[in-house]
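One such shown below:
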Amino acid sequence: MAFVLHERLAADTLFVASLELCELRLMNDARFVWALLIPQRDSIRESFELPASERALLWQEVDRLGEFMMRHTGADKINIGALGNMVSQLHVHVIARSRHDDAWPGPVWGAGQAQPLEDDTRQTRLTLLQRFAADLKDDQGREA
């Protein structure tokens, strides 16, 4: 069965790129630089349901994205979470947090209302994440 993105994830995020394992998406919320990695596998709810090699690849993609976001956003902290209480499809949130953001120091979930990205901010963040995807693919090509 082909990978199908959960409708809530599709509604709340913007497609960035397909990586080796995950689909990379940008959360449509101007308050936070917030990305999601969703393994492109059908009917997976928990990371332990992935084969060991794919589980390792998932966390490599998560760590690489977190490192990239830390380096390029000026974040004070990178938050990583895979809650799945509202959307059971496995997805990992990678969020660049700032001491000055709307939710600091608490979690982003339940902190006010999402503010849709305006055109310029959306394009800037999409471009940043597309650069990450291109760099990651280049690195993976060199490792192969």
About this structure: The CA atoms of residues 84 and 90 lie 7 Å apart. The radius of gyration is 15 Å. Strands lie at 13-18, 22-27, 33-39, 77-81, 92-97.
